[in-house]
Amino acid sequence: MFYHVKELQYHAKPEKPDPVYAKKLQEILGGQFGEISVAMQYLFQGWNTRGNGKYKDLLMDTGAEELAHIEMLATMIARLLDGAPEVDLADAAKDPVVAAILGGENPQHTIVSGLGAMPSDSMGNRWTANYIIASGNLLADFRANLNAESQGRLQAVRLYEETDDRGVKDMLSWLIARDTMHQNQWYAAMRELEEKENIVVPSTFPRELQKEEVAYTLFNYSQGNKSAKGRWANGISMDGCGMFNYVEHPVPHGDRPKLRPAPTYVHDTPLAAMRKSDDTPDPDMK
Amino acid sequence: MFYHVKELQYHAKPEKPDPVYAKKLQEILGGQFGEISVAMQYLFQGWNTRGNGKYKDLLMDTGAEELAHIEMLATMIARLLDGAPEVDLADAAKDPVVAAILGGENPQHTIVSGLGAMPSDSMGNRWTANYIIASGNLLADFRANLNAESQGRLQAVRLYEETDDRGVKDMLSWLIARDTMHQNQWYAAMRELEEKENIVVPSTFPRELQKEEVAYTLFNYSQGNKSAKGRWANGISMDGCGMFNYVEHPVPHGDRPKLRPAPTYVHDTPLAAMRKSDDTPDPDMK
Amino acid sequence: MFYHVKELQYHAKPEKPDPVYAKKLQEILGGQFGEISVAMQYLFQGWNTRGNGKYKDLLMDTGAEELAHIEMLATMIARLLDGAPEVDLADAAKDPVVAAILGGENPQHTIVSGLGAMPSDSMGNRWTANYIIASGNLLADFRANLNAESQGRLQAVRLYEETDDRGVKDMLSWLIARDTMHQNQWYAAMRELEEKENIVVPSTFPRELQKEEVAYTLFNYSQGNKSAKGRWANGISMDGCGMFNYVEHPVPHGDRPKLRPAPTYVHDTPLAAMRKSDDTPDPDMK
Amino acid sequence: MFYHVKELQYHAKPEKPDPVYAKKLQEILGGQFGEISVAMQYLFQGWNTRGNGKYKDLLMDTGAEELAHIEMLATMIARLLDGAPEVDLADAAKDPVVAAILGGENPQHTIVSGLGAMPSDSMGNRWTANYIIASGNLLADFRANLNAESQGRLQAVRLYEETDDRGVKDMLSWLIARDTMHQNQWYAAMRELEEKENIVVPSTFPRELQKEEVAYTLFNYSQGNKSAKGRWANGISMDGCGMFNYVEHPVPHGDRPKLRPAPTYVHDTPLAAMRKSDDTPDPDMK
Amino acid sequence: MFYHVKELQYHAKPEKPDPVYAKKLQEILGGQFGEISVAMQYLFQGWNTRGNGKYKDLLMDTGAEELAHIEMLATMIARLLDGAPEVDLADAAKDPVVAAILGGENPQHTIVSGLGAMPSDSMGNRWTANYIIASGNLLADFRANLNAESQGRLQAVRLYEETDDRGVKDMLSWLIARDTMHQNQWYAAMRELEEKENIVVPSTFPRELQKEEVAYTLFNYSQGNKSAKGRWANGISMDGCGMFNYVEHPVPHGDRPKLRPAPTYVHDTPLAAMRKSDDTPDPDMK
Amino acid sequence: MFYHVKELQYHAKPEKPDPVYAKKLQEILGGQFGEISVAMQYLFQGWNTRGNGKYKDLLMDTGAEELAHIEMLATMIARLLDGAPEVDLADAAKDPVVAAILGGENPQHTIVSGLGAMPSDSMGNRWTANYIIASGNLLADFRANLNAESQGRLQAVRLYEETDDRGVKDMLSWLIARDTMHQNQWYAAMRELEEKENIVVPSTFPRELQKEEVAYTLFNYSQGNKSAKGRWANGISMDGCGMFNYVEHPVPHGDRPKLRPAPTYVHDTPLAAMRKSDDTPDPDMK
How many CB atoms lie within 10 A of CB E83? Predict the structure, then answer.
């Protein structure tokens, strides 16, 4: 159950309107690695966690915080839109800034949301739960989270570079710091489980049931062998269970596949047409 | 540029048809962490990599391999569908197996693809590039890759549990082993960059520009303090740059946000209606 | 900013596992009118509301409650999945219940989420922000909310009919009651604004700028005139500003549109081919 | 069955080309509340209506009209694109209007549709049936329709504000008037059913099966109690069946949920790793 | 502008309910090549056609007919659902037919649409305008149409095979016949334009601006040379403008691409980390 | 199985950066008819082809080539982005070119991909497998392929017109030539199968099972009879099996559909409300 307080976790006030930047800032609100994604991802992971231990608590702590970040960004975007001039093509003739706004704004910020934030990214793609991950396996999911915070901080930093507004930069410097913490925390959680389970997910699948002979092999499927020099092709494997090796000229280990003629009720290309289509009989087709 | 050979990387031949399992197996072909996802993810990362060093080569090696895995799964699914009985509701009266097939098969496997594999997951959602990640920052992306191989191996293992077909299990044991390698290799690549860059992505953003005072703080936004006992709340941070700390009762650091009345041209709720809607004047609305 | 407590708003415990019902119940968690939709819709409306009056407070109160409903449903679904038998096609031969499970379960509940809830609907479509609405105009949005609670309660009631599990029914009877309140509250809010603004949204557009002559006309575009008998075709209009009227045989008020030949740089069908394609010259093409 | 006439319902001829506005106008053709949405929504509701009474007729009348509106907008957009200059970055150096066009146009209007309208919104998102609603319950659906016409008129009015083209404004004044009628008509239909069924959808669910004790309660989940002053928290409920009440400090009515350890075949985090992860034994995990 | 008549183009009455088949039949209503797709495709092509000649008329004739086909299928699906038993897992124990229904039905047909048709395919994917094509070039689009009718008839035929219901088969035999006509008509239209424009779209691009030396070459990128025996690798080209030729061992015609280091403001992997990552200096990185 | 070589199939080097054009060029990389679409389409068709004859070989040859085209475009886009100036609204005041870039660039090219190509189209829509087709029936699929190459070449030609960069034009002239070959080759393959199967897909459905009486009829559902003059309405049908005919005034061949009242468990509008809603009893409702 959730309680809301009206105050923001941190300030979200720009110095001045900037509808073009408002469009860009949508990326970290409603994009693939925006705040909606991390909020929903951590909450779903928390709800699906077994027991009530510290991992579940950590997930719920962080999920609830990310909801506050959605709120900060929604507020910032509305304020970047407030007071922006209404512009049209006739105005552009006189002023390149108007031209830039006309081209660079998100028209839905006026037409659809009435100068409010939208649950979408910087190109207007609506947020989708395709972005999130909750597998029930915490080591796998902590890696998903470490990735999410890495991509998220990277995008926030790039956005930091694209504005001179001190209010926006102030808010981003908060979010960037929180992403530093979140990378650190998921890293710690990941390492803790790796110490118990080793690094390969899932740890509970009996090793002997996989083809051990190719479990530590780098196949060179792309011309050039620079990858042969990496750590991943030399020495003991990262999980300590094998020796890395490199196959410079990989060959197929399977057959050339042959699909049987389809049953007539699916009306694929009739066998007669297929047969006649070759100058010589196809030995694969009985 | 790519060359194709007709032989499979490894065998993909089931003992017998099983259209219900064919539907399930689609998950690791066209699902969020299926083979299309990893193939496209690694190739796009490779194409966007600067220079021509070992990381690019590794990405292209592995991307090309994943294309071969799509092929193996497509072949296996077509064969699981081949020879499956055509069933309808009348038949179900006599045989629970028919009932199970009727319910559990993917009808598009007949109607749309003519007993062939589809570029979609086990619930029929078509594959989407929303699933993939290529940021230009390799440490971020190697984490995405480590996650993808962790989720992917987890799903392959779950599917291994759901069949008794020795042909299917044989193929899965190959794919599971390859996922072991790929987890190891991305882990190695991640660690290598972490040794150079430290763990926080991006490493190039000046630390002093983030709010350092909250860069190592765990805020307890979910009732209960089990998370206070974790590594992430105690001692030196994982990046070695700070001390973790825990705030049991986090308070807001920002104001209660007030959005100004909207300009008339957006036709939001008129100010008069908003004002009158409160019994007392709203001090937030000037 | 949000705080989370670990206790649920209301109990979410089924009597026994039922993976087929778990699949169905996803509809009101992650479907078009599921709890994710209403939570996100009310929160975005709240964040985009001008001022800090009672409407904003009401939106935030209700948005926060809906987050608790997501949590209840996620918990219920995980419990409906827990303890469910692992089944395959061979088992189905012996037991129609197994056949029903094999057909009726969502395979992603095992393969993807590890027996946890998913952010998707009963057919496995991932939740998308296409479902939500926040326009900045509260009268419009309260109507969206009234609709959402109407559709949502309808779906919950249909799901109530589809189970005999007393635990599930107990939880649904809570959610259904809350939907009763929410329909009442949005109805009250809608009526309050209608009393100030009249019923046509937006109220701020000058009436004289619309074509008043067709602002109260029902055009009979579908054969048969049963619709002529409705309130909407007779008497004073609902907004009190006009008289409803009915046009039995509507005629076009516009011209037959003619598009000019495309400029050559778009390489549409060349004019020569278009021209020659008619036996007689086309007077529409100069 | 449908017949088409070549004449438009109303004129759709701009004074001059304006590719930037053409991009914006796509919103009410192929957006969430564009004409495709209302056409498809009313037609599906009509086809799914039981019997052949006046409601079905009204739905089919209006659905057929909305098809004519798609046609008007498609024509208008094609004409706004016709004759627009072909521009590139070199030209922009000389003319801010060119810069505005280059930024503000939809490149697919040239590359994909050859200067024709597209079935997408102003940010290029293709139309999706996620937008539409047809539940089989007409009171619910009339509310969906009232919302759709409210959002749709609001967007048309905002677009009216964003152009000076008299031809465009003339067409919009027609569409805005029609939306006035459609809001009136769905309002009338909604009220008529409410008089028979009362306001809570569905009316056919026995009241005693819902938790009556929370069916008229406003829970204050967001700090501050401005919402306590609303009609929705005081007096008899809108449906006349209860008394509204307000709970200032809502508490949980459910337990802290505990999920059982997952069965081994799903390979979630192993119990051992979960157990050891807490310094003290977790009483929730048996 | 459109007029609707209440009668169907052809009968749509099944002998008996069959909710499993209703789910399957959704494919040709709301799937990739369902009737919504062809209706919207032909109408958008018609609205975007230049002039008012016979091609535009043909497109509007056929688009309007496809609207009638949506209506027939929506009616048929509602009737296949009407009278279907309400079933649950307990019932399945006694009856494999119930098990089949429980597994094979679309739960949204009850929960969401109230026993009505949905705008989605047989796996529940909502219809999307991603499926349709309207390029402004009629020869290209007639090929799209020929394909759509080919895929559509194929799916209708497969569905014909999957039922014994004489009412359903009767309706399908109508739709299949209409698809025969539509394949014939688009074929005729395509051939007519090919006679004027030759076969390569667009015909208006000057041949000398393409690399003529590879305009008729089959590159053998997949091992094995069976494709060398085809018409496409021998003799004069289909457009009569070149000679087909076959390259058994294709080589690259381009360089090994090198991307320059990224500017610092995008925070890609820092050059230092890239450089050090190779044992030897990378000559591609200056 | 696939092997990759680092060299490109053809050069992909622009003369100078142009981020606005980079955004546009995404269309033929990740759009509906971009290179991802054709690569995936041909590969899936190949994997689903029965036997191992020349058609399968041709599909795999071409699918592998299209992977190389993705690579060329990804490289070109990255280079068009490299060296582009970082711009903001303040800069736009001074320079219309900056204004054009600010409006016309894809912000995700900086924020998300770090100056790399994205798997999306020119409006930022991520690629989806909704775009592709693999039916198991080769004649149907060759038509899909002919269409894809027609649309693809058309889009490449339009993009050719929109740039003066000689490097870009050089690469496009290669791709345009390859599309010429691919149109020729699918045309040849289509004609070959048509000679064996005749033109109507699928050829294996017994003609007598379709309603022959409407298999060659053009129904005039759109006012005006220009379409009556076409080849499709006169003479022997294209498949040679019938005579085309034209029905100027088509009438319904089906009944007015009546849906029965819904069972109570779906809670559609209650029959009482429906009945009372008409002034006179509805004869359709028993």
Answer: 14
